[in-house]
Amino acid sequence: MMEKTQISWIQLFLLLSGFHIGSTVLLSPSAGAGRDAWLAMILGGAGGTLLMWSYAVLSMLNPSKTLVEILRDRLGKIAGTILSFLYVWYFIHLASLVFRDFGEFLCTTTYLETPMVVVIGLFAVVLLYTVNSGIEVLGRLSELLVPVIPVAISIISFSLFTINDFTAVLPILENGLMPVLKGAFGAITFPYGETVAFLMLFPHLNRKDKLKKTVVISAVLSTLLGLLVFFRDLFVIGGDLIGRSTFIPHLTSLLIPEFNVEPLLDINLLIGGGIKISVCVYAAAKALCQITGVQDYRGFTRAVLTFAVVLAIWAYDSVLELFAWTQKVYGFYVIPFQVLIPLLLLLLSLIRKGKPQGEVPDKEGNNNAEAVNA
Fold first, then answer.
1. 209: domain range?
2. pTM confidence score
3. What is the pLDDT of residues 319-351, one digit of tens each?
4. Most exposed residue of 90, 100, 154, 191, measured as fewest CB within 10 angstroms of its CB?
5. 309: burial class by Cβ within 10 Å (0-12, 13-18, 19+)?
6. How would you class 76 by CB atoms within 10 Å of its CB: exposed for 0-12, middle for 13-18, buried for 19 or more?
7. In 3D, which of 328, 308, 310 has the Cα closest to residue 320?
């Protein structure tokens, strides 16, 4: 059963923007390309925008249906249910990765003596209340909090304007094109492809005609904001450190004389990471609700969040192991969830749309006038 809640296109835009920023405010998926990462970000942004647009088209071809309902309708109940469970796993795993990024950063830079499980656990309690409050509340919170992120980024950027080295971008393509292509692939899967979770939220949009426009604008602006952050960091610390540092914006912020901007980074992570985790938890809980036939998704949120927290702590022994896995495995691991299955559903939906309405073939291949359920 679909919740009788709606969000505006502005709220969806801000949720998407906060989701994109999420972990990318600290971790650049294109950092492996070094000083050429800006090229990778442009290519990845173009590919990611196209991928997100395909999600929007898929949702519009299946109005008022979530990802779970589309899977069952297009692939059958059995196959659709199996794939729905796999998506539940992916959403929980994605939430756990953001939890771990959040915990690693805060315990490395700010709360040095605090166990990571305490930091992540307290954050999870706050997010449990947020998710249980409903998607409308999450949308209103995005209106209040997400605009803080570009303001904080602008403050840090202008504070560093006087110590920039604008020649750091040269030479272009020093290491060839391959690192740029790898960086672009990483940018598509993180964060643009991760917005597949919004297929569980798109039906709540009150203006369906605004969906494609909202998705495209959010992707373009997120790309531009990412480029701003990258060029700021590149001009301040140089291409060599860009490719070797872990939390690049944190390193950049330390160079601001007589001005502590670390709280601004913490705020960005709390807002962006909180929205990203909340969306993933909501998507997983809502999917479980529809799979099992339970009316209220809130019955699953506590279990989903607990599982995500445990997975965040248990799955990786160190931050180096986490980053090694995300750089070498994550991009291939998510291809079925982000690309193959959604594009298959899109193709099947387009085929269904092309069939004459009100006619279905009988057993002998002739058409009859039985109504077709869209």
1. 9-327
2. 0.91
3. 889 888 988 899 999 999 999 999 999 999 999
4. 154
5. buried
6. exposed
7. 328
